[in-house]
Design a protein that fits this description.
Mean pLDDT: 77
Largest sheet: 2 strands, antiparallel
Radius of gyration: 27 Å
Distance between the termini: 64 Å
Shape: flat
Number of helices: 11
Length: about 325
């Protein structure tokens, strides 16, 4: 009976959302247009740190990025995941109970009582589910930010062929010629658009600063300063681009040389960690017996916690090794 009740409640919520969304679409569209206009006029209030943090990551990662609107879409997605997962998990666990026992795997398991999973368990799991969009976004952003430093060199080489053109035209043509695999293709397109449509000089400075922030290298700062200077003075960019390309190629050679020396040490350290875990766990199991080791490891709270810590630390070592294996293209 309870299952049928929850089923009809869920069906009612889906039907209600399907009815409300078409009615709210015009208002959502008008709100987006107003946000874009206020953002262009510089009348939006100063955003907090978390808002700016998300907008910077979405600027580099999101395929359909829109200033301000993309951050609100991300917040709405997170909220929907939280609410949807909470009601889904609560629907399946509201009538389930968990039997608590003592943590002694060698004696008789004594029952300490029953706990209803219900709201607390659903709230905990839905909170974890709601953090997954941010975790995926963060990992993709870190990976793309490192790649952006290398893609900047490709961008400069393409742009050097258009250095005789005006800055806004050169940026637009460079963005069109960059391959899809270049993570700076869309940010450069947005930057070129700001050169042709800005109303205040501060707006142009904000767009250039945002472009530099997603790369985060000294070379990006030099590139942004050069194009703004050439845009204001009307001079050519050929010599400054050639100098910047030569500097980046020299630093790239140094990084690749250091990477070849460091790569073996990183891989060796990772495999040593794995071998150490296998030897320690296997030696302990052989000394106390496999059955006793299994009960200690999987039937006690301490054993499960330690197993989780081992798994997390091992995965962290792999991730850290992966990022160290491809350092950023910068002087730092």
């Amino acid at each position: 009976m309870i299952i049928i009740t929850w089923f009809f409640m869920l069906l009612s919520l889906i039907s209600l959302s399907g009815m409300l969304y078409p009615a709210l679409t015009p208002y959502i569209r008008k709100t987006k247009q107003r946000i874009r206009m206020l953002n262009k006029l510089g009348k939006l209030k100063k955003r907090n740190t978390s808002f700016t943090h998300l907008e910077t990551m979405l600027y580099l990662v999101a395929k359909n990025y829109e200033p301000v609107a993309s951050v609100y879409r991300f917040f709405i997605l997170t909220l929907l995941l939280f609410v949807g997962s909470f009601f889904t998990i609560f629907f399946f666990t509201s009538e389930l109970t968990l039997t608590l026992t003592t943590s002694n795997p060698f004696g008789n398991m004594e029952t300490m009582g029953n706990v209803n999973l219900g709201k607390g368990f659903s709230l905990f799991i839905s909170s974890l589910v709601a953090t997954t969009p941010y975790l995926f976004l963060r990992v993709r952003y870190i990976s793309r930010k490192v790649k952006a430093g290398y893609d900047l060199l490709e961008l400069l080489k393409v742009m050097s062929r258009h250095s005789h053109l005006a800055v806004d035209t050169a940026l637009s043509r460079t963005a069109d010629e960059l391959p899809i695999s270049n993570v700076l293709k869309r940010p450069l397109k947005l930057l070129s658009f700001s050169f042709t449509s800005y109303m205040y000089e501060e707006e142009l400075g904000r767009e250039a600063e945002r472009f530099v922030r997603v790369i985060g290298s000294t070379f990006a700062v030099s590139f942004a300063a050069d194009i703004i200077h050439e845009y204001k003075t009307g001079g050519g960019m050929g010599r400054s681009l050639e100098t910047l390309i030569a500097s980046m190629e020299s630093q790239l050679f140094n990084i690749l040389e250091g990477k070849s020396e460091m790569s073996d040490a990183i891989h060796l350290g990772t495999w040593i960690n794995m071998i150490s875990i296998i030897v320690i766990c296997g030696g302990t199991a052989m000394s106390i017996g496999w059955s006793n080791y299994a009960r200690l490891q999987f039937q006690t709270v301490q054993g499960v916690v330690f197993l989780g810590l081992i798994f997390i630390s091992t995965m962290a070592s792999f991730v850290i090794g992966l990022f160290l294996n491809k350092p950023r293209l910068d002087y730092k």
